[in-house]
């Protein structure tokens, strides 16, 4: 691979290596640079209708649910998500399928030819590249996941057909602030005047609705305009005249309800039978994904307090069935590790801590310092990497024990790669 300027005949790996090297910062907030390049190429005049999806957690599962429901009705759909687990190609899907490398190479080559001296970050290249691919395919709908916050994220250069906020909690505090009110205000930046704004959070900060009222967005709020309720094996959802009960899907019911409401607001809701079939077959990689049944192993990308809270509920269900739960956790250095570990601690019977050898990955020694601040009596083992931990832990599992591997997308990717070997 090279850091020299690639060409249209270069590999995708060469391009990704180059994109990582051309901007001094991994994150650079602001829309001016990205919008300038997008306008130069004509990416903002695409006929596709864009649904912009922000949120601390739940963006990926909400997008996957929307994608499934739209595809079932015959629409063409482009979906942009980040980060990826294994391959970059996961970030861009057309009609539910990943694309050949050359589509990404062509998009990056176009951007490099047209950006002039305007610097772009890796994520900004990815966002503009996805928009170029969606325009090339002339899809009916684009599902665009916001990367960080909302107001100043690269995705916010578009004019959305609708804007969605899934959940609001504390993450990336150095960029978004250290209160839910500050985070909510930033995410509400994806709202537009006179445009549907669907909010699925269960305790919506006033800053979200204040901003929505200020700009006259057409808000549809969880708990006020739509509701859902979880039961043992099902969940019910109600919005205006729509009132259904479905079997629990593999994704959080809250996100399914938000997706259903979004389509109902846009008059795009399919029949009850189609919804039921889509929810029953919905699978999202890395979200409480079962890797093995013997031994029983799950993996989850939970990396902040809110997602860890949801994971703890899923693990509590396994404990109620009589299983012991062992946790293999590895996290990034800039995450609130104590908050995450505290959320899952009550349902963990044994800890396996591991280091992450990747960008921003944290050492096992630092994770050990974090768990020392957690109220737990469970035994704790330490390993330098996820692979080493799995080598040691898997042979010791019995039929009454579940292993959950979590802590970041990198942790899940390491586990999936280990299984592929």
Automatic annotation (TrEMBL):
NCBIfam families: folC (TIGR01499), PRK10846.1 (NF008101). The gene is folC. It catalyses: 10-formyltetrahydrofolyl-(gamma-L-Glu)(n) + L-glutamate + ATP = 10-formyltetrahydrofolyl-(gamma-L-Glu)(n+1) + ADP + phosphate + H(+); (6S)-5,6,7,8-tetrahydrofolyl-(gamma-L-Glu)(n) + L-glutamate + ATP = (6S)-5,6,7,8-tetrahydrofolyl-(gamma-L-Glu)(n+1) + ADP + phosphate + H(+); 7,8-dihydropteroate + L-glutamate + ATP = 7,8-dihydrofolate + ADP + phosphate + H(+); (6R)-5,10-methylenetetrahydrofolyl-(gamma-L-Glu)(n) + L-glutamate + ATP = (6R)-5,10-methylenetetrahydrofolyl-(gamma-L-Glu)(n+1) + ADP + phosphate + H(+). The chain crosses the membrane at residues 401-419. Belongs to the folylpolyglutamate synthase family. GO terms for cellular component: cytoplasm. Functions in two distinct reactions of the de novo folate biosynthetic pathway. Catalyzes the addition of a glutamate residue to dihydropteroate (7,8-dihydropteroate or H2Pte) to form dihydrofolate (7,8-dihydrofolate monoglutamate or H2Pte-Glu). Also catalyzes successive additions of L-glutamate to tetrahydrofolate or 10-formyltetrahydrofolate or 5,10-methylenetetrahydrofolate, leading to folylpolyglutamate derivatives. It is an enzyme of class 6 (ligase). Keywords: ATP-binding, Folate biosynthesis, Ligase, Magnesium, Membrane, Metal-binding, Nucleotide-binding, Transmembrane, Transmembrane helix. Its EC number is 6.3.2.12, 6.3.2.17. InterPro entries: Folylpolyglutamate_synth, Folylpolyglutamate_synth_CS, Mur-like_cat_sf, Mur_ligase_C, Mur_ligase_C_dom_sf, Mur_ligase_cen. Signal peptide: none annotated. Pathway: Cofactor biosynthesis; tetrahydrofolate biosynthesis; 7,8-dihydrofolate from 2-amino-4-hydroxy-6-hydroxymethyl-7,8-dihydropteridine diphosphate and 4-aminobenzoate: step 2/2; Cofactor biosynthesis; tetrahydrofolylpolyglutamate biosynthesis. GO terms for biological process: folic acid biosynthetic process; tetrahydrofolate biosynthetic process. This is Dihydrofolate synthase/folylpolyglutamate synthase. It comes from the Bacteria. It holds the Pfam family Mur_ligase_C. GO terms for molecular function: ATP binding; dihydrofolate synthase activity; metal ion binding; tetrahydrofolylpolyglutamate synthase activity. Residues 53-193 form the Mur ligase central domain. Residues 286-409 form the Mur ligase C-terminal domain.
């Amino acid at each position: 691979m090279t850091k020299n300027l690639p060409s249209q005949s270069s590999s995708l790996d060469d391009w990704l290596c180059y994109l990582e090297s051309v901007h001094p910062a991994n994150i650079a907030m602001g829309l001016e640079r990205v919008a300038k390049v997008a306008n130069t190429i004509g990416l903002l005049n695409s006929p596709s209708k864009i649904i912009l999806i922000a949120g601390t957690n739940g963006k990926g599962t909400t997008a996957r649910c929307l994608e499934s429901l739209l595809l079932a009705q015959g629409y063409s759909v482009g979906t942009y998500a980040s980060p990826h687990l294994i391959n970059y190609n996961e970030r861009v899907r057309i009609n539910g399928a990943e694309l050949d490398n050359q589509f990404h190479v062509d998009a990056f080559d176009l951007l490099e030819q047209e950006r002039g001296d305007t610097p772009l970050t890796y994520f900004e290249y990815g966002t503009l590249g996805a928009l170029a691919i969606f325009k090339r395919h002339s899809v009916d709908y684009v599902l665009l996941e916001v990367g960080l916050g909302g107001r100043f994220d690269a995705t916010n250069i578009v004019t959305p057909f609708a804007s969605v906020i899934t959940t609001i909690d504390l993450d990336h505090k150095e960029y978004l602030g250290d209160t839910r009110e500050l985070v909510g205000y930033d995410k509400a930046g994806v709202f537009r005047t006179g445009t549907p704004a669907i909010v699925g959070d269960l305790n919506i900060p006033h800053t979200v609705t204040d901003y929505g009222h200020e700009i006259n967005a057409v808000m549809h709020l969880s708990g006020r305009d739509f509701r859902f309720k979880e039961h043992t094996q099902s969940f019910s959802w109600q919005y205006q005249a729509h009132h259904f009960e479905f079997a629990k899907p593999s994704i959080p019911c809250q996100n399914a309800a938000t997706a259903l409401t979004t389509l109902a607001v846009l008059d795009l809701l399919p029949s009850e039978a189609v919804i039921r079939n889509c929810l029953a077959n919905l699978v999202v990689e890395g979200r409480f994904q079962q890797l093995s049944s013997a031994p029983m192993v799950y993996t989850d990308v939970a990396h902040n307090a809110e997602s860890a809270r949801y994971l703890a509920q899923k693990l509590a269900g396994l404990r109620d069935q009589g299983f012991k739960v062992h946790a293999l956790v590895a996290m990034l250095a800039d995450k609130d590790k104590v908050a995450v570990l505290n959320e899952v601690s009550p349902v963990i019977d044994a800890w396996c801590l591991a280091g992450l050898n990747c960008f921003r990955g944290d050492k096992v020694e630092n994770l050990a310092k974090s768990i020392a601040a957690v109220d737990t009596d469970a035994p704790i083992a330490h390993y330098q990497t996820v692979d080493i931990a799995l080598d040691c832990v898997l042979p010791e599992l019995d039929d009454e024990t579940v292993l959950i591997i979590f802590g970041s997308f990198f942790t899940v990717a390491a586990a999936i790669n280990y299984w592929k070997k």
